[in-house]
Amino acid sequence: SSTMLLSEAEVQSARGAWEKMYVDAEDNGTTVLVRMFTEHPDTKCYFTHFKGMDSAEEMKQSNQVRGHGKKVFSAINDIVQHLDNSEAFLGIVTPLGKKHATQLKIDPKNFRIICDIILELMEEKFGGDSKASFEKVTNEICTHLNNIYKEEGW
């Protein structure tokens, strides 16, 4: 049974808001990561190749930061395409959560940090309505990731 995580209207407005962000996936993804690394420097410890970078400018130019920013946005984009089908949604979120919990050992609080920065950027670029329509999506993502972490014994 493919149950809906959000109502049809919520799915549509969330997709609309996300599409505007995803048009510039690499730049926006980079901005989000650079903010995370600057505002929460402890998050850099997971990325060995970003460790030596202190200036936001330097990070913005880094191919690794840009590449990972794009990767994060692509993953969210996959999730957004499957908001109307919880089985497909979990099919994407579950392996992502497992990998971050078991292989990468990323503290799950970092998902909330990155989601909040995405919402913040959305609001700056496209206003409060975009942010509000996407907030439910980030809550779903973080809730499911946290559940996966619990199952993995965090």
UniProtKB/TrEMBL annotation:
Keywords: Heme, Iron, Metal-binding, Oxygen transport, Transport. It catalyses: H2O2 + AH2 = A + 2 H2O; Fe(III)-heme b-[protein] + nitric oxide + H2O = Fe(II)-heme b-[protein] + nitrite + 2 H(+); Fe(II)-heme b-[protein] + nitric oxide + O2 = Fe(III)-heme b-[protein] + nitrate; 2 superoxide + 2 H(+) = H2O2 + O2. Belongs to the globin family. It comes from Donacobius atricapilla. Involved in oxygen transport from the lung to the various peripheral tissues. InterPro entries: Globin, Globin-like_sf, Globin/Proto, Globin_lamprey/hagfish. It holds the Pfam family Globin. Residues 5-150 form the Globin domain. GO terms for molecular function: heme binding; iron ion binding; oxygen binding; oxygen carrier activity; superoxide dismutase activity. This is superoxide dismutase. Its EC number is 1.15.1.1.
